[in-house]
Amino acid sequence: MATRESSGPNGVEEADRSGGRHEQTAGSADSPAASRRVVYPVGEIEQPDGVATVARALAGAESRPLVTGVVSVPEQTPLELSDRVLGPHREQLRHAAADVAAAGPGPVPDTRQVVGRHPLRSLANTVERHDATTVVTSPPQHRPPLTSLRRSSVEWLQTALPTRVVVVRDAPEVGSLSSILLPVPAVESKPGESDAAAGSASASDANRESPEHTRHVSAAVETARRLAVARDAWVDLLHVVPSDASEARRERGRAALAAAREQCGGLERCDTWDLTADNVAAAVAEQSVYYDATVIGTPRHGRLERLLGAATATEVAERAHGTTLVVSPSVDDE
């Protein structure tokens, strides 16, 4: 279906190529965008308390977030729905935008209603149309039985969108956030290369040897930095070292910490430390008790094994205490 625009009761209506309709209900989505554009989806994607605070914080005081209401309709339902049907969804969208606006200083959020047969695809089109750099969401509150092998909405977004995706768990504590823990994995040695052959590593080596490692760690550090600036918080960068690690392995860990610390430039407090432990997830979970939030980087690829030492990012996030943010990088993260 070709894109079309017509005048609607609350602004601009568009039918996108996936068969969805976008209805702008507030703000000006076509206004000049800041250097980053944060999309906060609501509606079909349930958002618990606190996620709006993260979206506002990551947008910053100079950027206008885009709050997007996602409404799915059955195949046989006309897309030109009546005000009576869309009314509750518009009300939910207004409340969500008000939550984002109240979460911190910055421009009033734009809003966008997305109606379509395939709401995630319609949301992806909206993200692309508005040059979004980050999508802030939460894990599904309920997952139907017999769907363990199917991708959740969040997993679909992580692999389908070119943007950075920040998944927020247990968000209520973020309102009083003052401390952030960020686990930093070491750059792994190349396949078939021993620790002795790998030798020592510098911070520049950490940025050069493993682009995928650099992307997801860099995205996590930048996310933690923005959150820290917005909430006046401090960040601790933690590297977990196996008890039997060689000196070369320990050096790679120190290099990874140095590279992450360099990216924290401008923060009043960003400290680094290492901890000897053989179970990464357990060690991070134990330390997370002392922090208000834990930020975890994960590769954007839909692999079951997501590197963070020997543990998966999902396992670390599920075992960590308090608010956790799982960050997958955009295609443009370096």
Overview of this protein structure:
By secondary structure, the protein is of the alpha/beta class. The chain has two domains: 4-147, HUPs (Rossmann fold, 3-Layer(aba) Sandwich), CATH 3.40.50; 173-328, Rossmann fold. It is 34% helix and 23% strand. It is built from ten helices and 13 strands. The chain has a 13-stranded mixed β-sheet with strand order 1-2-3-6-5-4-7-8-13-12-9-10-11, with helices on both faces. The two termini are 36 Å apart.
CATH class categorisation of the largest domain = Alpha Beta
| Secondary-structure class | alpha/beta
Main beta sheet: 13 strands, mixed
Mean pLDDT: 76
N-to-C span? 36 Å
Query: How many individual helices?
Result: 10
* Coarse morphology: elongated
What is the name of the CATH topology of the largest domain?
Answer: Rossmann fold
Strand share of the residues? 15-25%
- How much helix, percentage-wise, in residues? 25-40%
Number of strands: 13
Known CATH architecture of the largest domain: 3-Layer(aba) Sandwich
Sheet with the most strands: spatial strand order: 1-2-3-6-5-4-7-8-13-12-9-10-11
- Rg for CA atoms: 21 Å
